[in-house]
Design brief:
With about 70 residues, the chain is an all-alpha fold. The chain has a domain at about 35-60. The chain is built from three helices and no strands. It has helices spanning about 1-20, 25-30, 45-55. The longest helix is centred in the N-terminal third of the chain and has 17 residues, at about 1-20.
């Protein structure tokens, strides 16, 4: 029973991992670069979320810079 579970688990990993090995053609990359394919496609929602994080952290900025806006590094 334990060997059977290991084989099933290994098969699942192989099937899931095979989807990650697909090469994209240059014309297919344009589809994935569209704004609605981003992690947060709504800019208003992203702005509101950044404002909440900023007010909770008592700092401004720090979304793309190391150390945040508090002056500590």
């Amino acid at each position: 029973m334990n060997t059977r579970n290991a084989i099933i688990l290994a098969t699942c990993f192989v099937l899931l991992g095979s989807g990650c090995a697909i090469d994209l053609k240059p014309w297919e990359r344009g589809v994935l670069a569209k704004p609605h394919m981003s992690v947060e496609p709504d800019p208003l929602q992203r702005t509101i979320r950044e404002q909440v994080v900023t007010s909770k952290e008592s700092s401004s900025g720090g979304f793309s810079v190391v150390g945040g806006g508090c002056g500590c590094n």
